[in-house]
Amino acid sequence: MTTTADTDRAAATHSVARGAVARSLGLLVLVAVLVVVCVLSIMIGARSIPAGDVIRALLGNDGSIDHSVIWDLRVPRTLVGIVAGAALGVCGALIQAYTRNPLADPGILGVNAGAGFAITVAVAFFGLTAPSGYVWFAFAGAALATVLVYVIGSAGPGQATPEKLTLAGVALAAVLGGISQMLTLRDPNLFAGMLSWSVGSLGGRSMSLIGSIAPFIVVGLVLAFVVARPLNVLALGDDLGRSLGARVGPTRTATIVAVTLLAGGATALAGPIAFVGLMVPHAVRWFTGPDQRWIIPYSMVGASILLLVSDIIGRVVLPNGELRVGLVTAFVGGPVLIVLARRRTASGL
User: Fold this and answer.
1) For residues 216 and 237, which has the higher predicted lDDT (pLDDT)?
2) What angle is formed at CA 60 by the lines to CA 55 and CA 61, rounded to 5 degrees?
3) For 192-291, where are the alpha helices, taking DSSP H only?
């Protein structure tokens, strides 16, 4: 005999399964959109290339100018957008889950500023002007900033609340940004070649540079998927998480390592690009809900789409030049942050 409880459980199971199917289909749609955006990224630029020529150039070397443009400039640029976008999106999702603050991101919490400051020190005092040389400084700066923000936010009575961590991150980013500007002004010629990097750019990166940084980002992404389920449990609170079997210390350590690898790698590769890690995880939660197992893959694909679309817009908006992708994301992200701040409730974690 079927009871009301059995019926309710069956309905709940069916609802969960239906939601998982919908999320899976949504993720497949996002991947398809990313493929289309990648093709557009290769086609669109100062020299427009038809889709047929793009396909032929990708399949084989015909010795044409278009082939050289595609493989030497556009393909590396597109790969930078995919890799850096995925890193920024997942990094933002992890930080928001770690701090339980839906409006946190690597920029607001000072992680990008830490990586940028370390790179500035590498250039100013060690003469390392190539990303392959200062990538380790970026990782060290991102790690130091993450630890400092948590230490400052934990100081005083009470635990590290999302509000305290956000204020600590904003303050640290302001201090590190000011010192970085001071070092830059000491020798503007030394930093002239880093101008496009300092505002966030996808262009001018070689395949060898992408190959040297991508493994660190891949490790960060793998760690993010590993900690996704424990972060769901810790969202209920550390004490309740422990009672449910979550290992709080290892989970938080792995999350910090992942944030360091993702933020440091993305900053070394594309520069300090703001708002991507804030907008994308916040937006995808409206569809996925608070489950990090879905938020992380959605953020990974969605952030890559956003960064590539912003880069395409930057190429076509100026008739005789190029608007750096970091400026485009800032133009988009500023109003979005204002809208989110005016909402009575943010999307739940």
Assistant:
1) 216
2) 115
3) 195-199, 207-234, 238-243, 248-270, 276-288
